[in-house]
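User: I'm writing a tutorial on reading structure tokens. Could you give me a worked example: one chain, its sequence, then its tokens, then a sentence or two explaining what the tokens reveal?
Assistant: Sure. Here is the example chain.
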Amino acid sequence: MTAVIDKLEQLAERDAVLAPLARSYAAALRLLTSPTGTAIAVFLDPAVRLASGAVPLLHGRTIATDLGALRQLAADTTAIFVRSGVPEAGTLLDAVASDRLPPLDLVRATLCADQENLQRLALATQTSNQLVAVLGSVLVIPIAAALVQNSAAASPTRWQAGYCPICAAWPTLAELRGLERERWLRCGRCGSGWRFPHQQCPFCGNSDHRRLGYFAEEGKQDSQRVEVCQACRGYVKTFATLGPWSQGEVLWHDLTTVELDLVAAERDYRRPEGLGYPLAVQIVARELAA
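And here are its predicted structure tokens:
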């Protein structure tokens, strides 16, 4: 993971627009790969194996997280925003420092895509909904990834939905792995991956090949393309890979191909908002749960 953290820092050096996110992702991954990184979040209730249905692993669970590490990541991330000149970042930094933005509340609202509570938190900090949501998305990365790493035995034996079997997020991108070009969807916020059929939209389930397609730069269609669905106007960036990417590589490739997102938007395609499943979780401080 160290190599991709370095790549994110290098990306920040050469691209001022992407710098806040690139450096924030690097900070989150650095925490995750620290000696105590996988201990930042654990389930308090007994582990269960996913059914073959559509209920993600996190649904209905209680999660204990390292509140001290979470507060430090929130402070580090908002400081990155301030140094990058992000509007309202100074106000957000003050809110984090004064605990007017409780990190546990932000993580729970972000994990559950609870827009009402995200708006409430933004109002309390006197900053934009978007800025608070971005901070929340960064804080969730090490927590969700640690839960995945600590729950290998609970991985589903079968999963047919287009959203993440762990945290219910829609896929960040897709991989076409190896010589067989097996299609795997990847979640950027928890790092998990799951097989998914070719010629099927992960968002609406459409499998009518006449309403599925892709666009790509000339000569790159076999290595990098955007697969689209005309039924729901969803899209997923798709890459040929030799094997599974690390979570950091997923985030890095998503950031460095933002031009594909812009082209998709110009053609009226979009990533779905929210989650694929109405997730409900409880977040508590590990320090208080011990």
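What the tokens reveal: The chain has a mean pLDDT of 93. Residues 162 and 203 are 6 Å apart (CA to CA).
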